[in-house]
Amino acid sequence: MITDVLWSHEVRPDADRVVVVLTGELDVTGADGLRDLLRAQVRAHATVEVDAAGVTFIDSSAVGSLITGYRAAGERGGRLVVANPSPVVRRVLSVTGVLDALTL
User: Fold this and answer.
1) 93 and 99 in contact (C-beta within 8 Å)?
2) 26, 38, 33, 97: which is closest to 72 by C-alpha?
3) Along the chain (104 residues), what's the average pLDDT of each consecutive run of 10 residues?
4) Burial class of residue 50 in the structure, from the number of CB atoms within 10 Å of its CB (0-12 exposed, 13-18 middle, 19+ buried)
5) Which domains occur in the chain, in start order?
6) The dihedral of CA 21, 9, 33, 37: what is its sign?
7) Do 47 and 17 form a contact (C-beta atoms < 8 A)?
8) Dist. CA 83–CA 20, nearest whole Å
């Protein structure tokens, strides 16, 4: 079983929102951590922007974590958006049918 998390994040408060900068590979090994990170940010901020420019791989479990964060934000009257998706992220979000909902 592979347990190494291959991604990292940085949280940057920015005026009326928070920017969560993601880098690396978002896959099943880090999906729970990503989900927990996004839920925490959604609880603390009305607008959460996920900067995905540095993401080099994303799988369906990580997409599920983004969707969970998006829904949690909506339930609180806030929003979560994916900004600057890398080409890989843009393609996977497009193929899965959530690109328009999650991006600016």
Assistant:
1) yes
2) 38
3) 79 93 96 97 97 98 98 97 98 97 91
4) buried
5) 7-102 (3.30.750.24)
6) negative
7) yes
8) 10
